[in-house]
Amino acid sequence: MTKATVSTEHQDYKVIHDGNVASAKGFSAGGLHCGLKYKNLDLGWIYSEVPANAAGVYTTNVFQAAPLQVTQESLKVENKLQSIVVNSAIANAVTGKQGLDNAYEMRHAFADHLSIADHYVAVVSTGVIGDQLPMDKVKKGIQEIALEQPKADHFAQAILTTDTCTKQVAVELDIDGETVTIGGVAKGSGMIHPNMATMLSFITTDAAVDQSALMELLKGTTNETFNMITVDGDTSTNDMVLVLANGQAKNNKLNADHPQWPAFVSGFHYVAETLAKKIARDGEGATKLVEVQVKGAATEVAAKEIAKAIVGSNLVKSAIYGTDANWGRIVCAVGYSGVPFSATNIKVAIGPIVVVEEGLPVPFNEEAAKNYLMKETVQIFVEFQEGEGTATAWGCDLTYDYVRINASYRT
Amino acid sequence: MTKATVSTEHQDYKVIHDGNVASAKGFSAGGLHCGLKYKNLDLGWIYSEVPANAAGVYTTNVFQAAPLQVTQESLKVENKLQSIVVNSAIANAVTGKQGLDNAYEMRHAFADHLSIADHYVAVVSTGVIGDQLPMDKVKKGIQEIALEQPKADHFAQAILTTDTCTKQVAVELDIDGETVTIGGVAKGSGMIHPNMATMLSFITTDAAVDQSALMELLKGTTNETFNMITVDGDTSTNDMVLVLANGQAKNNKLNADHPQWPAFVSGFHYVAETLAKKIARDGEGATKLVEVQVKGAATEVAAKEIAKAIVGSNLVKSAIYGTDANWGRIVCAVGYSGVPFSATNIKVAIGPIVVVEEGLPVPFNEEAAKNYLMKETVQIFVEFQEGEGTATAWGCDLTYDYVRINASYRT
């Protein structure tokens, strides 16, 4: 719980140096190796000292994995959670009745270990589809979980699959004179496409937050952040985002009527957006984060469709990998996004370099564009004069390594 | 016009050995180098001795290229075409007023050269977006077109961009005691995604066909063939399919009331499907043709969505490249296709190897599956018990070479 805040650039909140999912009061987290992976950590846990108001959003894939069903059952009882247990390497998806039984057993084993009610536990899995969990290993691992030896970094590691790095962030802000902290962690590298969260993320806060306000906040924020990233257009069977608010900061309960609700929303949004961008940047094989900003579309929905079409285009992604300012592919993606617009008023810029104006190419310095595209973060701006719709989407470049990783992931 | 027919496997038509777009009576075609490419042929033409009933389908991309606008204008006048002129290397897309003027000029130059009316000429371009056509080169090339020295192979070469091979086919059948021939040619390697034809194809027949029947036939067939292929999910600005029926076979005019209409439809469908599969197999960087057959879906639309989701999945495509029988990714794609269904009745087979039954994995011989996936054509079968909806989609694997080609195409 190091709290050396380093940033003062935001009005409403400060970013905590090395902040993580256990930065908020009353939360702890850890991870260990139980034998699902060859060597790396593969079993993680998050714990709150008290049951926390909780909410979740889940994949829209028809083949929703067993743990998602069990977690939703947990939440239905009181809309509260006290702990989360996650395994990586095996998704427990498309595993039928036995998979469901295993998810219940995994939940019960952890609840029993903690001496709390089953419905205070969320179970989560990520990894290969179709294999059954080796429950002996999972249960033995759960027995070894020691709440008194937490290490949030180990949790962040334990949930990874093809990810190359952990993804954590936390902010703090003042609510009712109390310091409120919001921390989060995420994983996700392939099977990433905007349609519900398409990855895993867990966000914790010690703020007291009204349960229905928390659910609305999670849904709204997810639509602006996790649902605006794409790596490969494949929406996974296992993705979810959970938020836990345990009230340990002792602020007055937050909801939309609280005068500092906007500040809390802004901090929460920062946490979610930061995690979403970390996921996009760590897309399988990626060398760059790509951010597409759309302005002036007829509606927000239109802006989102256009932003996602560009960031999802294999041709745009390949061109960015090749540092080729191929604006034609950007315009082409805009054209097939399914959104009607006047082709004569579009403006496109690659970073600071305007490449299309009033629907027509403008001369630009190819060398400068190539240099810009070598950066680790590439921004694409598309502007219409159709209305007020704006949106931002995030993705990554398409590289040889994406193919390498996915031609050999399972075997 | 070699007509050594080699196949008798089809009831209604025979496949012509080395058949092409000029196999039908009264058609000729050729190609030459006019200087848009460094060395390869880049200007192609098709000519019919008489004006032919014609129909076209065009990309749904909002940025429809200039030549598509001009060709549609040509067709509007009489629904007849006598010739087609195509350049490769430059798409004449997103080129504004000057691009449109150039397309008109290109049409006029060819009409003038042939001494026919402008509206009997279709103009077509494919290549890089945003560059203007160097009209001096194009017009000089058109002047050099010699109808008396046709070579259909040269046409097939002249329309290629990143394609690695030409794509041609023809069939013949008996209608009213007359031999009727249907021939076709296509190009298309990247920016391929089912939404209108997303590539170029030209189909010619010497059959006499009623114009509105021809249009319906083209639309219906395109939806079952060209619109069911995907290489990378990117719908181009320039794609079109044109059909010309010049009546030189002297059959009674065909329409839906003609007793042999079904035979003609079947031959036409074979030509379109063969070209579509050739395009998919030659997808940028592809090493394999992937065919996905869906049966028993609630509706045909549902079957199509599911087939296209599977064949379009980067993860499925990468797994096939890696000869990994990763059925989990197939099931995952089915799950996010947007089509509701019962997850417990799905059956999946990779070639002859059943991998999922009643929604659950079944044990299979991994070695046999790996061997099957090494074939040049990979079939995936997905079966539901929801209704009578069936569909077939075609695509290719995703390889290092796709990335290589597209990271460096423009520059």
Automatic annotation (TrEMBL), chains A, B:
One MF annotation (Gene Ontology) recorded for this entry: L-glutamate N-acetyltransferase activity
Recorded metabolic or biological pathway in which this protein acts: Amino-acid biosynthesis; L-arginine biosynthesis; N(2)-acetyl-L-ornithine from L-glutamate: step 1/4; Amino-acid biosynthesis; L-arginine biosynthesis; L-ornithine and N-acetyl-L-glutamate from L-glutamate and N(2)-acetyl-L-ornithine (cyclic): step 1/1
GO biological process: L-arginine biosynthetic process; ornithine biosynthetic process
Record Pfam families: ArgJ (PF01960)
Active site: residue positions: 198 (nucleophile)
UniProt KW keywords: Acyltransferase, Amino-acid biosynthesis, Arginine biosynthesis, Autocatalytic cleavage, Cytoplasm, Multifunctional enzyme, Transferase
Residues the UniProt record annotates as site (Involved in the stabilization of negative charge on the oxyanion by the formation of the oxyanion hole): 126-127
Keyword Heme: no
Coiled-coil ranges from the UniProt annotation: none
Enzyme Commission number: 2.3.1.35, 2.3.1.1
UniProt catalytic activity: N(2)-acetyl-L-ornithine + L-glutamate = N-acetyl-L-glutamate + L-ornithine; L-glutamate + acetyl-CoA = N-acetyl-L-glutamate + CoA + H(+)
Assigned GO CC terms: cytoplasm
CDD domains, alphabetized: OAT
UniProt site positions, description: Cleavage: 197-198
Cellular compartment(s): Cytoplasm
EC primary class: transferase
Highest rank taxon of the organism: Bacteria
Main location: cytoplasm
Residues reported to bind substrate: 161, 187, 198, 284, 406, 411
Family, similarity comment: Belongs to the ArgJ family.
Reported function: Catalyzes two activities which are involved in the cyclic version of arginine biosynthesis: the synthesis of N-acetylglutamate from glutamate and acetyl-CoA as the acetyl donor, and of ornithine by transacetylation between N(2)-acetylornithine and glutamate.
Assembly notes: Heterotetramer of two alpha and two beta chains.
Protein name, as recorded: Arginine biosynthesis bifunctional protein ArgJ
